[in-house]
Amino acid sequence: MKAGKLGLVALIFNSLNAFAGDIHVHLFERPSDLLISRHSGEIIEIAAKPGAQVARGDVILSVRDDKNVWHVRSSTRGAIELYSKTIAIGERLHQGDIIAEIISNDITGELRITSEQGNSYNLDLDGIYCCLYLRGKAFEIKIEDALVNINRQLYYFSVISPGPELFRFLDDVVNEQAELVMKLSFDNNGEANSG
């Protein structure tokens, strides 16, 4: 988690007046998976280059032993970050060797909503809300999980169609000046409007 860098006070707008609560937004670092060889043999094909986008189950490379050809498949959706130095056609791969790292395309985070007035604004699980703003670009989020009590609400979310702006933002180690703001609109009953 980019602690301290993304915990910016955000704004909530009520359709009648501004609400005096805060939304603290934290984005989690993108998870990655290491691909580890389950077979030994000679590398006969490299199907995806470093930087390529792959879906879960896509063939990354093929390995031939004395009897079979094995396909190493992606374990997640994302970008191939790097290959091990020994990954090249004709090289020998051993069981347990690290093949590559795949950086996930999924961006997740948490919203912490606090209220000094004790007001409660419930967001629906699986609800889609607008909007998380980064440098003027809006991103919809989907609520995945929630922990709610009287004084605080904690929501875990995923970003729908994050795009390259959020990827670059998470990859940038110096982002203290970035403008990450969460704005939710509420109806007159205090219910957040979802898509």
From TrEMBL:
Residues 40-102 form the Lipoyl-binding domain. It comes from the Bacteria. Keywords: Signal. Residues 1-20 form the signal peptide. InterPro entries: Biotin_lipoyl (IPR000089), Single_hybrid_motif (IPR011053). The keyword Signal applies. This is Lipoyl-binding domain-containing protein.
